[in-house]
Amino acid sequence: MKKTTNEIVTQIRALLNELEGAPADASPVQESAVKTTPKKATGCIGAIQGLIDEDFFKTQKAISQVVDKLKEEGQPYSRELVSMNLLNLVKPPRKILRRIKENDQWQYIVRT
Fold first, then answer.
1. Which residues have a Cβ under 8 Å from the Cβ of 60 and sit 6 or more positions away?
2. What span, in angstroms and rounded, lies between the C-alpha atoms of 55 and 49?
3. Over its length of 112 residues, how does the chain's per-residue pLDDT go in tens digits?
4. Among 14, 31, 53, 100, which is least packed by CB within 10 angstroms?
5. Which CATH architecture has domain 43-110?
6. Residues forming a β-bridge with 99
7. How many C-alpha atoms does 96 have within 13 Å on its Cβ side?
């Protein structure tokens, strides 16, 4: 006699419940009911996100201005690292910032 997939799954759940000390007819807890909070970004991108939250990018800012502001706040990141993370905030999936080229220099501003 061949068992169906549902019968096998039911038998496995009953065995797992038995191992856990629960009654064999107990219904399984749905994993989708567990809510997780999104992780807060850390490092350079977290510092830039903090500047966004403080409305630093309300007006256009050059990379050098961002680097200087981070240094003032005690977070000395290299120009290359800041540039890479700003670009990550411009591209999908985040798309938080826009960038505009003025005088051969990229300027960053919050996307509206």
1. 100, 102, 107, 108, 109
2. 10
3. 577 888 889 999 998 888 888 655 555 555 556 677 777 889 999 999 999 999 999 999 999 999 999 999 999 999 999 999 999 999 999 999 999 999 999 999 999 8
4. 31
5. Orthogonal Bundle (1.10)
6. 108
7. 16
